[in-house]
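Supplementary notes for students who missed Thursday's class. We covered one full example, reproduced here. Read the sequence, then the structure, then the short commentary at the end.
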Amino acid sequence: QVQLVESGGGLVQAGGSLRLSCEASGISVRINAMGWYRQAPGKQRELVASITGDTITNYLGSVKGRFTISRDNAKNTVFLQMNSLKPEDTGVYYCRALLFTSWGQGTQVTVSS
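Structure (token representation):
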């Protein structure tokens, strides 16, 4: 059974930084493609960043150069480093193994202007 636990969200001013963590169990983040999604109020959930087993990364255009996805294989954890945050980055952030349907509970990120 795949379980994902996100943490690290919070309230931050525009221009600030946050680091999100996603601790996985039931799967290996080393060999599975993993992604971070976000859902802003009133909007659909969107894929923000992904990382493959070959460590190939992809980013949503609006976060390129500001967000970095990475993983720690020993801790079976995926991270999302978010810098130069903007109010439009506000939302609930979720991680997911791209080939599985399980979602974590998400972590709230709020960026004030």
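Commentary. The beta strands are 3-7, 10-13, 18-25, 34-39, 46-51, 57-59, 67-72, 77-82, 91-97, 107-112. DSSP finds no helices and ten strands in the chain. If anything here is unclear, bring it to office hours.
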